[in-house]
Amino acid sequence: MDVVSDAISAVHLGHPWFHRMRTNGKWCARLDPYDGAGFYVVLKGNCWLLTDNGALVSLSVGDAVLLPHGTGHVIADSPVDSTAAAQSAVPFEQWLAEAGPRVRPDRDGTEILCGKYWLDCSRMHPLMAELPEVVHLPSQVGSHLELRSAIDLLAGEMDQVRPGSCVALPNLLDLLLVYMIRSWMAQSTSGAWPSALGDPVTAAALRAMHSQPAAQWSNDRLAAEAGVSRPTLARRFTTLVGRPPMTYLTWWRVILAATLLRDTKETLAVIASRVGYGSPYALSHAFEREFGITPGRYRAQVATGRSASAVN
Questions:
Q1: pTM of this prediction?
Q2: Paired sense of beta strands 28-31 and 64-67, if any
Q3: Cβ-Cβ contacts under 8 Å for 188 (sequence gap 6 or more)
Q4: Could you read off the pLDDT of 234-258 as tens digits, one per residue?
Q5: Which of 77, 131, 255, 283 would staple 272 via disulfide (CB 3.0–4.6 Å)?
Q6: Close Cβ partners of 194 (under 8 Å, ≥ 6 residues apart)
Q7: Distance between the two ends of the chain, CA-based, in angstroms?
């Protein structure tokens, strides 16, 4: 896999939740902070988003916005400040109950696709952690073409029930997340990870490690893969990624092991082999050093957490 796909897969849990909202008149709703990433796509009309940290964003038809860290926020029909929001905002769940597909908007009404991606924030890849509080992707002619296509496909799937919609919709929503992150990377001028993946030497080393995490990589082999000397690789990789190549590889192998413990029933020996460790003991030692818990206890905690979520 590539870095962006791995970064998303490492934290992504289950299918996204989504809802299509149709609203009229004056409205204002608040969503408290949560573990995950939220998104809005304005299909008709316009609205405003105010985060708990004071960022105010105007959203027009065709705009998409991603809140990758589950930031608490208010969404409303008109600009609001924190004082006005505290007085007029209703809980998001109440807003869901009062608005929805059954409400027919007038010509000036607003139609929004909103949803959440459930994320395991305990193992956030630095690429995901680097995403800003709000990723605003305005609708502009000639920009974010893949994202625009995904939004059009989503809107088409929700306009009417079609064969296969139950499969198409969650997969299109996952695609939407990829395109939103990809669009942010394309327009980012200061992020470390867009720079790292835009550097041919660092990107080649990352691509090698992520495509074959169990391979017997060394600094010399990675440098040869990138077509540069070992000192050049070490300097450029460490500057852009924030840690040396082999340190990053060790960290990523443990993160990958945690993902396999969470998502599969494979034995620790099989997982150790898949992520490049010679024995379950070696993996356990590295895992406990990173997470402060043994792989077995980690898997048990994840299972308990999922059972509690299912009950809720």
A1: 0.85
A2: unpaired
A3: 194
A4: 999 999 999 999 999 999 999 999 9
A5: 283
A6: 185, 186, 188
A7: 33
